[in-house]
Amino acid sequence: MNFLRGVIAGQAAGPQPTGADTIQKLCDRVASSTLLEDRRDAVRALKSLSKKYRLEVGTQAMDHLINILQTDRSDSEILGYALDTLYNIICNDEEEEQDESEDAVTPLPVSGKHKNVSAPDENAQKQADDLGVQFTDQFIQEPEHVTLILSLLEEFDFHVRWPGVKLLTALLKNQCTQVQGVILVSPMGVSRLMDLLADSREVIRNDGLLLLQQLTKSNAAIQKIVAFESAFERLLDIITEEGSSDGGIVVEDCLLLLLNLLRNNSSNQKFFKEGTYIQKMKPWFEVGDDNSGWSAQKVTNLHLMLQLVRVMVSPVNSPGETASCQKSMYQCGLLQQLCTILMATGVPADILTETINTVSEVIRGSQVNQDYFASVNAPSNPPRPAIVVLLMSMVNERQPFVLRCAVLYCFQCFLYKNQKGQGEIVATLLPSTIDANSISAGQLLCGGLFSADSLSNWCAAVALAHALQDNLTQKEQLLRVQLATSLGKPPVSLLQQCTNILSQGSKVQTRVGLLMLLCTWISNCPIAVTHFLHNQENVPFLTAQISENLGEDERLVQGLCALLLGICIYYNDNSLENYTKDKLKQLIEKRIGKENFVEKLCFITKHELYSRAAQKPQPVFPSPEQMLFDHEFTKLVKELEGVITKAVNKSNEEEKKEEEVKKTIEQHDNIVTQYKELIREQDSQIKELREQLGSMSSQSEQTQATLTQQLSQIQQHKDQYNLLKLKLGKENQSPSNGQGDGSQVNGLQTEELTQLREEVEELHKQQTLLQTQLGDKDALINSLKSEAAQTAEGSAGGSENTELLQELEALRSQVQAQSSEINQLQTERQELVRRAEAASSDTVPSSDSSVDTDKMAELESRVAALTTETERLKGETKGLSESRADLEQQLASATSTVAILQTEKEKLQTDVQESKKEQDDLLMLLADQDQKIHSLKQRLKGLGETVEDEDDLDARDDDDEDEEED
């Protein structure tokens, strides 16, 4: 340490060392010292020299400083000195020299920068900037160095974290793109930087805001990551904590960071809207009328807040997202709050101008917002609409230029895609609605249109043109406007007055505005073209203007005159004999020349101010003299330039051919329209048939499910029958069991007969359900039959279709007959069941067994006959199917109906067959059961038991009933 003091203080024994020598010795000490204190003192000395000897320290000490950051992580003090030194050699900002009182030694006399020292000239500053960029490039040659700084930011120690934040900010300022790339690929790199906003030390949090500003510049990927790291929530909380618009520079930094995150980033804008952060912006604009409350910082903050609102509703955004944000701003009351500022007193001019621009974009293209803005009144006596108050400022030449431009933009946005608002503006000019006691928007526009101020002329003409944009009705209505020029003279139309002012040779700005108004007015409006041509002086004036060889300033006027004359040709309906399309083209060819006319027309798009106006809707001009083009008018020029050029160059024969082609196309379109209507009708019919098919399919599925259930039950009956047969067989093999066995068999038989009776009743219910479904299908067949008959009336094969329907009717009758027979079989089956129940009372009528057997045989024969009849019906059905295939070729319109009928018929036959199978199985089961009952009775008789006849049982039942009645 004494050695260092001697070298620095400069002893008389040796020469004074230079700064480079001292820095070299310090660097050697940093590299070679084994004691931490010696390295710390050397780094602190380098820090004190780093501002004056920036080049020397940066060149010789950077590697040593980086090594200190890597090896001495345990000592926060030396880390802080190293980070501060690196910041001093990399940073290009002019700052006051930091207090070095903590240094024990002042090695060399350093001429610090003080407030009274003049700033360096531009060359010195440029050299300093270049030096900072060079050292930044040297530092980030190894991406691990940036990652090292990121890791040091995790240290909570103030002397490490704060200089680390400043150093990383300086790196981003000098080489933003490269450092952004390193941070983006670094694991948790952005998250570490977002943690700075949660630091309880305000200086670190505030410098963290500056760091994030540099980090998020022009990098959409980092912007998205920062947004999804809860940046919106944290920033809005900080703004609220700092006092919103009344806050200090921290609020400004937060707003700048929000603008970085949202501008030109649709993903973040959508996230901001869906996170309901728009609603949290409303309290920002709650300002009073106190003039003393507008400090410079408040003006800056509110200006940035308004810009933030404009970012969300900018016309360059996607229309869907813009409309959604506009809706949210209206629903949460933000638009109402902005209109309050708009009508408040004491608002600074720049804030008022930016508020007007913000309100303009919030209402642009939104019908709800435009309607609300139309209802806003200024707090005056009497109250006046806000639109009128704003127009008064626009046509007032004493108002600031930027304010007048903002009002014009607001009026344009109010009328954008707002036919209702356009009608209200034009209505204030019509004779029937003029109120002499009040000032209307129409009166202000007319006053500005014909005032002595050329800027007012231009603004009023453009505003009135926007009231006619894409609105044929209002173009025709404006033709009714009459103006009183002076006492004693008849009134003239507004259209005529505009042409009169043009012919008087006013200023270029005034004439350009009037020509834009006339072009917008008569374009796509043949009636307005006729009114314009009706004045005999208009066409000669235009041809004279175009044909003359005027100066550079007049070329734009000549181009607009050519455009106006071209519109008169293109939208001419040839109602005036003297100014038909052909005569106007002949006039151009003789007086002007086609090539000269097209050349003058092209002057418009070649003008330098034309491309500037075409970029964005907002009228932004550096000076009033450069206000010549309107954004919407540039669209009209782009649309009409080509068609007018073609219309002027076309011959009469080509026009006739085009008209013929147009007529042919119209006829073709009419034919196509007819076919489209026919296709729509057929589609509706197909849809109805598909619905019917779907309902029938569902019915078929239900029937199939029912049949499946019945098959399952029949299988159960078969299983039970086999089981009973097996048990009876075992009993027959052991007859010596005596009376006890007979009782057991009789009890078992009674239980099984009871179960059989329940199952027979269930089958009876299912049979009734099938009968009901059969009736429904009969009704459906009748309706389909009537439809098929109506369809077949207009076809050649109507007789064959009628025969098919008659055969189907005959089949239906046969199905009904079979249904009645099935009912009769059901009745007889119930009788057999009743007898089986009677047999369960331990007595069997032996005399009736032969009768039952005869009946069973008769039933079997009848079932066989029904089976034969069903087979015959199947054959007939097959023949009907073949005949239907022939009819389908002749009756195309009835094909689907016949197919449906055939399907229903086959389904009904299937139902009949399944019912017959069920009846056969039941009859077989009952026959077997009756036979077993008969054998059991014989066995009982053989065993000596008394068995009563069926008649005795009936008589006994009758006696019991008589006794109960007594």
Defining traits:
966 residues, mainly alpha, Leucine-rich Repeat Variant, two-stranded antiparallel ribbon, two-stranded antiparallel sheet, 41 helices
Question: Mind explaining what this structure looks like?
Answer:
The chain is mostly helical. Among the domains are: 157 residues, Leucine-rich Repeat Variant (Alpha Horseshoe), CATH 1.25.10; 230 residues, Leucine-rich Repeat Variant (Alpha Horseshoe), CATH 1.25.10.10; 255 residues, no CATH class. The protein is 73% helix and 1% strand. It is built from 41 helices and four strands. It has a two-stranded antiparallel ribbon with strand order 1-2. Strands 3-4 form a two-stranded antiparallel ribbon. Helix 8 packs across helix 9, helix 13 packs parallel to helix 15 and helix 30 crosses helix 32. It is flat.
The rounded distance between the terminal residues' Cα atoms is 141 Å
Stretches where pLDDT is under 50 for at least 5 consecutive residues are: 1-14, 95-120, 735-748, 794-801, 839-853
Taken from the alpha-carbon principal axes, the silhouette is flat
Instruction: Please state the average pLDDT score.
Output: 79
Roughly how many Å is the radius of gyration? 51 Å
Provide the spatial order of strands within the biggest beta sheet. 1-2
Portion of residues within helices: over 70%
% residues in beta strands: under 5%
Q: How are the SSEs placed, and which strands pair?
A:
Layout: H1 2-9, H2 19-32, H3 36-49, H4 54-71, H5 76-90, H6 122-139, H7 143-152, H8 158-174, H9 176-185, H10 189-194, H11 202-215, H12 220-241, H13 249-262, H14 266-274, H15 296-312, H16 319-331, H17 334-343, H18 349-363, H19 367-375, E1 377-378, E2 384-385, H20 386-394, H21 401-415, H22 419-427, H23 441-449, H24 454-466, H25 472-478, E3 482-483, E4 492-493, H26 494-503, H27 508-522, H28 526-534, H29 538-547, H30 555-570, H31 581-592, H32 594-601, H33 603-606, H34 608-613, H35 631-649, H36 652-733, H37 738-793, H38 798-839, H39 849-890, H40 895-942, H41 950-965
Antiparallel strand pairs: 1-2, 3-4
